[in-house]
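thread from #wetlab-drylab

HS: before we spend reagent money on co-crystallization trials with zinc ion, can we at least see a predicted complex? here's what I'd submit
DV: go for it
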Amino acid sequence: MPAKAAPDINETRRDCAMPAKTHLFLCLQDNYGVLVHDTASGATAAIDAPEAGPIEAALNKTGWKLSDILVTHHHGDHTGGIAALKDHHRCRVVAPRNEAAKIPLVDETVGEGDAVKVGGLSARVLETPGHTAGHIAYWFASEALAFVGDTLFSIGCGRVIEGTPEMMWRSLVKLRDLPGETRIYCGHEYTQANIRFAQTVEPDNLALIARAAEAADQTAQHKPTIPTTIDSEKAANPFLRADVAEVAEAVGMAGKAAAQVFAEIRARKNKF
Ligand SMILES: [Zn+2]
C-alpha cells in the first residue's frame, strides 16, 4: 500500500474501510452461520459454530481458511460445531468470559470493551446479557458490521432465558445506539414470524409494512432476510421501540417505564 502523509482519522477509515467480506449460510433448522474474512491478511472468523458441516462447506466454497471462532453465547446451537472445527483447523476460540465454562475448547475469554482481532480487522466486544447471562456481541466499527447472536433479531429479539427483561432492554438499547448504518447479523432466520407478531403491536407502522413486503419478497426468492441495519430495526422492530409512546399505548402500558413496556411485549410474543 503506498505511504500517505499523516491522514486524519476519517481519511484512514475511508481508505481502509470495508476490507471485510462476509458469507452467510443456514445451519441446523433455522440457525445462521456466517464467516467474516479479512481480504488483506486472509484471516477468517466463524461467528458461532452451530454445526461443523455447513461451516466446512462454506469454507470450501469461499476458499477461506478458518483462523478464529467468535462465540456469542453458550447455547448448543451456537457451539455444537466447535470441537470438530478446532480439531480440523486448529483455530482460536474466543468466548464470553462470563459463560466460558459452558463453552468447549475456549482459548481466549473477553468482556465489555475488549478488542478482538481477526487478522487486520478489529471487533469491540459488547456485553448484551438477557438471553443468556454472559451473552456478547461483536462490533466491527470500521466495517459497520455487528454480530449480535440471539440478542437482537430482525423485527424481534431473543427470549429472556437467563436474565431479566430490564437487563435485556438495556442490552437492546446498547445495540440500538450503534451507528444507524451498521449491518446486523443475528443467529436465526425468524423474521417472517417476528413480523406477524410485530404487526399485532403496530399494524399501522409504515416502516414495518414496508419491511413485511421486503421480507416476503426475500423469502419468496429463497434469500435470507439478513443482514438488517440498526436504522431499519429502530423504525420497525417493536422490541427496540418500547420507549415510543404509541407502542406503550398499543400494549396498554401508556406512561410506564420502557423496560416494563418491553417486558409486556416480550411476554406477548412468548404466547403468540
Ligand atoms: Zn441462544
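DV: Residues 206-220 form the longest helix (15 residues).
HS: ok that's useful, forwarding to the group
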